[in-house]
Design brief:
By secondary structure, the chain is an alpha/beta fold. It folds into two domains: 87 residues, no CATH class; 143 residues, Lambda Exonuclease, Chain A. It contains eight helices and eight strands; from the N terminus they run H-E-H-H-H-H-E-E-E-E-H-H-E-E-E-H. Strands 4, 5, 6, 7 and 8 form a five-stranded mixed beta sheet that branches. A hairpin with a 2-residue loop joins strand 2 and strand 3. Helix 3 crosses helix 8.
Length: 240
Amino acid sequence: MNTKDRSITVEKETAQNNYSKPLKVHADECHKLMTNPRNKGDELSETTKSWLREKAVDEVLGLRNIVITKPILKGIVCEHNSIDLYNKVMRSDYKKNDVTKERYGFRGTPDLLGSDCIIEIKTSWDATTFPFFQDEVSKVIKKGGYDWQCRVYMMLFDINKAFVSYCLVDTPTEKPNGEQLLNEWDNFILHRFDGVVDAQKRVSTSDVIERDASIEQQMREQYVVANRYYQNYLDELYKK
């Protein structure tokens, strides 16, 4: 083997080693991992496999579909306002958590971290998307996979209960950089609440989500299967 061929081989082996990274499941992705397949004989659902393919493409090629909507932007911009509203209504004094933990291939950073519970804060876009009623809270949590998100947090931080709390705060007209968040055709009545709607009516908290060792075992077992598929996708992309 000449020097040029040897150099190419070394580069390929180095690249392959870099690509063979274990799957990392962020807490807000756990529901994609735990989606049940339609056919009982299948190891993974098509939803899970599609998600794994997307992660493999991102890892190998750096190509990722990042969806940034106005509701997502509001959640980022107004997170501290929502935490302040939660503290006011619950008469608590939580600070935004910045501790991240990784374990068993899972990674997560809870919004609020107490000694005996975890609280995940969700900021609603407007009055039409806020769950005012308890049965609505349960539905939107299941739909968004936020119960799975909380299960990752409980497992990582060894805490036995968690809650999801929806908060309805005023929507800023602009983002901090001056970009419009609300347009003239938006109904401002659905975005302005301070002094109009009582604070306690603008916080809806889920029933307690209890930690479950058997569910955590399922999560870890599902991770092992998913990581095997993920490694195969990485390998296929590398060799293509």
